[in-house]
Amino acid sequence: MSPSASMPSLESTGIPGLDNILNGGLTPERMYLVEGTPGTGKTTLGLGFLLAGAAHNETGLYITLAETELELRAVGQSHGWSLDSLRLFEMVPPDGFADDQEQTLLHPSEVELGETVRNIMAKVDEVRPRRVVLDSLSELRLLAQSPVRYRRQILALKHFFSTRQCTVLILDDKGATGSDLQLHSIAHGVISLDQDLASFGAQRRRLHVVKMRGVPFRGGYHDFEIERGGLRVFPRLVASEHAGADIGGAATTNSAALDALLGGGLVPGTSTLLTGPAGVGKTTACVQCMIAALKRGENASYFLFDERLPTLLARSASLGMDLRPYFESGQLQVRAIDPAEMSPGEFAAAVRDAVESHHATVVVVDSLNAYLQSMSNEQFLVLQMHEMLSYLGQKGVISLLILGLHGVTGDIRSDVDLSYLSDTVVQLRYFEASGEVRQAISVIKTRTARHERTIREFQIDRGGLVLGEPLNDFQGVLTGVPTFSGETKTLMASRGETGSGALRS
Asked: Which domains does the chain have, with CATH numbers?
């Protein structure tokens, strides 16, 4: 038999996201180490692994050296699981706590190491499981008292398990000082679970595969959450792994003037960044472009960071762009996101789901400022946004990104510069003319067409942005203090009046 023919198929871990990272799952009949500090989800992962096997009529054995069977069943109940299909074996016998026996809660640490290992082996021979979870190595490490003896016993367990045709997960809470590299060298694969506490908001959980022999796994950190039903892992988004889609011609924004400013409209597979101070009309411009796609029968997804969904629906309806019918029909997917509770990996997974399951052709992120606050380091935001925009571009999706700027006039700055990542940058600004505060719009760059290099005044009316004719008498727009020095008659008429300068779509 050839080596390729003798290779067994991979076994699922019971976690789709983790299987994706491992390129299918775990090689069967090997011993794996799952390490992490208390609370990172090792027990939940182990139980999910056994239940995945039980779903295919594989016998699963959970050997616990520290927890009781009652505690394990409580963990299963918290996830809505029944553990009746598993064999649970606790190394602390109930009679070990009798009054006539001076035992403590750390009963396994008072038993000879050889006896503990023999009990484990005897239970495996009795049950003959296909999948085993051993929880945890901390007790064995305490019993060993020396690194040499500890390594010898782990090697003995590894050899024993290899002759019993079972796949083994050994859990470790990183109780040893520093990294237990000798255990890493013994195990066929190592999965490390981490959790970090931010200054505000929920803890961030992430995992990475330290090693996995014979499996081309996806390296790096991957965010995950512990939810009812087990671990939910969000594989790190890698744009190059996703095939590209055919990209059509430019799509209209339902405004002839805005299309002209953009050089023909919004091109599928490109990202457009709208920047400007608060209240200048960035969200309105995005909603107008999205409404145009919805009217064409396309699907759209709106990721809302900065305001509540009822506020967005009410404000859009007051401008004659009622989103509620599209939202209720499912054509429009709006997801309000709390950046303090969502990890960047989970957000990337939500964007993927919007494209691949909801078939969205337009994705709006409102705004990047709040998304930035969910990241511990600005550099990571830029890297993740680069992958996300590359992925959306390959899928032929129109991406609309909103970036709020600090201040209203003068030295206006943003939290981070993402203009080089975007295919098109639209700048919205306030300016003063004849004692009134007005709004101007210009396109700084676009990679897909020859755009207008003019500045147009605009007003927000029913139906979205209404743009005026190009204004040539501006100075200092790029400094953040636009100054209009032309004649008043070239400006748009005030709202409610009829102005020849307004170019309505």
From this structure: 3-236 (3.40.50.300), 256-503 (3.40.50.300)
